[in-house]
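Anyone opening a protein record will find just a pair of labelled lines. A complete record is shown below as an example.
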Amino acid sequence: MPHSTQTKIAKGAVWMILFKLVERGLGLISTLILARLLMPEDFGVVAMAMSFIAMAELLSAFSFDTAIIQNQEATPEHYNSAWTCSLLLGLMITLMMIALAVPIATFYNRPELAWVVIALAFGPLFTGAQNIGVVAFLKELDFRREFRFQVSRKLISFCIVVPLAFLFRSYWALVTGILVSKFCGVLISYLMHPYRPRLDFSKARELLVFSRWLLINNAAGFFKERAADFFVGRMIGANSLGTYNLAYELANLPTTEIGAPINRALLPGFARMHGPIEVSSAYTNAVGILALVALPIAASMHALAPYLVPVMLGNKWLDVAPLMQLLAFNGALLLFHASICAVLIGRGFPARVMYANLFYTAMLLALLAGIFQYDKNIGVKGAAYAALLTSLLSTPAYLYQLRHCLGLQPFLFIKAATRPALASALLILMVQWIIPPYRVGATFLPTFIWLLAGSIVALGTYVAAVLLMWHVAGRPAGAEQMLLQRLAKEWAQRFKLRTGSSHV
C-alpha cells in the first residue's frame, strides 16, 4: 500500500512532534522567563487553583472529539451535538467555580486564591466554545492543518504572555497566560475551519453512550496527574507545590513532547486499521520509536538534572533537581501507558482504559496517603516516590489490557524497548563517571560548560550503544531500521536538491 494508514500515522507523528517541538520551544522560553521573574510560591498558588478547576472540568470530560474521531460514520448532527454539549457544560463549570471560589481559598487557607479561581473559571467556557470542526483535521489524518492550528494559537499566546510577565511580576502572569491561550484557541478554530456549529441535541445520547467511559477514564486521568497537588498543597504549602509542579512538568518532557504527539497520531490511525496483524505491526513499530527517542531523554534528564536546573531556572530552584531525577523515570513509564491507552481507545475499548487508569489512581492515592502518614516530614520527595512506584507497579495492568483486548503479548513491548533501555542505562553510568557532581554555588559559565559536555557524552554514548546492540542482534527490522532509512531518505533528497540547484 503506497499510501497506507501506517504511512499516514508516521507522517502524522512527524507533524505532531514538530508541533510539540515548536510549542515546547515557545513554552520553555516562557517558563524560563517566568521562573526568573517569579517565585516558587507563585507557581504553587496557580497550581492550587488549577487543581480544583481541572477537577470541575471532569464534568465536561466526555471527550466528544474522541468519540467523533472513533466513529467513521459521524454526521454534521454528531458534530453539532458534540459542540452543544461541550459549550453548555463549559458554561456550567464556569458558574460553579465562581460560586466555589471562596470555599476553595478557605481550604488552602489562602484568601487571595479566590480571585485566581474566579479568573481561571472562564477557561472551561472558552474550551467549550471552540469550533468542533477542527476535529476533522485529526479524523481525516490531515496533520498539516492540525499543526498549523496548534502552532498559531501557541504563537499568539506567547507574544502576549511574555510582555505581561514583565508587567505583573506575579502569579497573575501565569493566570493571564492560561486564559489567553484558551481564548486564542477559540478564535483561531473558527478562522481555520469553515464549519459553523449550531445548537443541536439530536445525537447527544449516542455520543454519551461511547463517551461515558471516557468521562470516568478522564476522571481517573485527572487524579493520576493531580492527586499529588492536593496532598502537597494542603500539607506542605504553595512553595513546595510550586517546586513539585515545575519538576513534574520538566521531568515529563518525554511524555508531553514526544509521546503525546505520537499518541495523538496513533488514536485516529488505529481507528482505521483492519485486522490483528496490521494492528500488531503498527503498535510494535510505534513502541519501538517511542522507546528509541523518549528513553534517552528521560535518562539524560536524570543524569544531568543537577546542572540543568541552575542553568535553566537559576539557583533559587535547586530543590527541583532531585525531584526531576526521580520523576524522569516516571515520565518514561507514563509515556508507554499513554500509548497503550491511545491504541485501546482507537480500537474501541475505552472501558478497558478506564479500568487500568482507575487501578493506577487507587494505587497512587493509597501510596500518597501511606507515605505522608508514615512520615509527615518527608516533603515533596514523598510525592515523587509515590508517583514513580505507582507507575512501575501499574505497568503490568496496562499490558494485560492490551493482551486481553487485542491479543498483543507483553513480549512485543519488552522486545521493542530492551535495546533503548539498556543503552539509556549505559548513558547514565557514562555521564556519572565522566561529569563531576554539581557544586552548589558554582557560577553560570562552568555549570553551562559541564552541562554541554554531559549532553555530548550522553548523546554519543546512547547512539553508539544502540547501533552496536542493533548490529550484534543481526540488524533486525524495527525502530532502528525505520529511523535510519528515514534519515537516509531525507539526506538523499537534500543532496539531490543541492546538486540540482548547483547545475542551474
Q: What stands out?
A: The mean pLDDT is 76.
